Amino acid sequence: xxxxxxxxxxxxxxxxxxxxxxxxxxxxxxxxxxxxxxxxxxxxxxxxxxxxxxxxxxxxxxxxxxxxxxxxxxxxxxxxxxxxxxxxxxxxxxxxxxxxxxxxxxxxxxxxxxxxxxxxxxxxxxxxxxxxxxxxxxxxxxxxxxxxxxxxxxxxxxxxxxxxxxxxxxxxxxxxxxxxxxxxxxxxxxxxxxxxxxxxxxxxxxxxxxxxxxxxxxxxxxxxxxxxxxxxx
Length: 233
Ligand SMILES: C[S@@+](CC[C@H](N)C(=O)[O-])C[C@H]1O[C@@H](n2cnc3c(N)ncnc32)[C@H](O)[C@@H]1O
Prior knowledge:
Blueprint: H1 24-32, H2 39-48, H3 60-73, E1 77-81, H4 87-95, E2 101-106, H5 109-121, E3 128-132, H6 135-146, E4 150-155, H7 162-172, E5 173-182, H8 198-212, E6 216-221, E7 227-232
Parallel strand pairs: 1-2, 1-4, 2-3, 4-5
Antiparallel strand pairs: 5-7, 6-7
Helix pairs in contact: 3-4, 6-7
S-adenosylmethionine binds next to helix 4 and strand 2.
């Protein structure tokens, strides 16, 4: 059954766009008045900048927002899908309490090597474990033994398996737990009909699925490339 959301509202009652338009000057202001990046994160961002895929890295304000969410909710058992060089991993791990553990999934060892170097520098190797391989395989084995035990999940990997990741993470999450999903505005392409590529279609499908999912509460934020925060009821 679909939720009872108003499909149509009269024009004079339609929500107005009050989200501020982000130009470069305003973005610089936001960063210079809110981001308190640790030295290690700055180093990691600089090291990652040399790779042409560096734009895969989450932005500092998103990293800091994830860290704040973690400080606010004190999750003890965390999961990450899509490590890359570890900016999000380190952002979250640095915010975790000493008794919290993070399992981070990534398919490429060369990225994990960089991430692990920084995790070690931060003295967090005993709290963060990385798994190299296809995330679907790791999730399948986690579901066998650890259903309903995770408090916090961050999804930021390939889009091809995004829907599968969402369903798997819902199974792994305890009631009241949180899923954060990156790239849900997908460079703005989700709202532009001209984009009909596979990834854009999957992100749109995911957004509709989450919106209509009665098992969760949801908020889609226009931070970074779009970040959806989900709470399992
Ligand atoms: C957008 S990047 C993650 C960025 C990272 N969260 C950060 O802050 O730097 C996506 C990552 O997912 C990994 N990935 C892609 N497909 C995957 C899969 N099937 N299983 C596991 N990892 C995958 C890629 O190798 C890449 O490192």
